[in-house]
Amino acid sequence: MENKDTINLLKECDSGTKMAVTSIDEVLDKIKDENMKQLLLVSKEHHGKLGNEIHSLLVEYGSDEKDPSAMAKGMSWMMTNMKTAVHDSDRTIADIMTDGCNMGIKSLHKYLNHYDKANDKVKDVCRELVDIEEELARKLRPYL
Fold first, then answer.
1. Contact between 61 and 6 (Cβ < 8 Å)
2. Largest alpha-carbon pair distance within the chain?
3. I want to staple 66 with a disulfide (CB 3.0 to 4.6 A). Which of 11, 71, 102, 107 is the partner?
4. Domain containing residue 79
5. Rounded to an integer, what distance in angstroms lies between the CA atom of residue 130 and that of residue 102?
6. What total of structural domains would you count in the chain?
7. DSSP H helices in the chain
8. d(Cα 36, Cα 66) in Å, to the nearest integer?
9. Any idea what the CATH number is for the domain that residue 139 is in?
């Protein structure tokens, strides 16, 4: 059985990939620029693929998955809908998604530091998720 840090870090990564996919799904139908839409679809695919890998590791380690909290999902939905109701533009969506990436990156680094006894394989998975978030935030910059 894996140590608690390994399981906890993996669960946080699981929650993060699910939150990212949900957030992307919330905005896809609002995006006007086809290139931006494709960028988010590719990122959603990367998050989903990594999420599947994380789920397999959780099963391998005998643990349950972790969904994002209802509060986090609700706040994300509310913020997205409020901001796009006021300023319905791709720029607004890029801003929202960039903020989400930055919050994810910050949280994942905190979890890496907090769960420092996690095994290297899971730390690498977490770093891969950080890389996906950083790449999306970087590629969204031209839309801001």
1. yes
2. 50
3. 11
4. 4-143
5. 9
6. 1
7. 4-28, 34-60, 70-86, 90-114, 120-140
8. 29
9. 1.20.1260.10
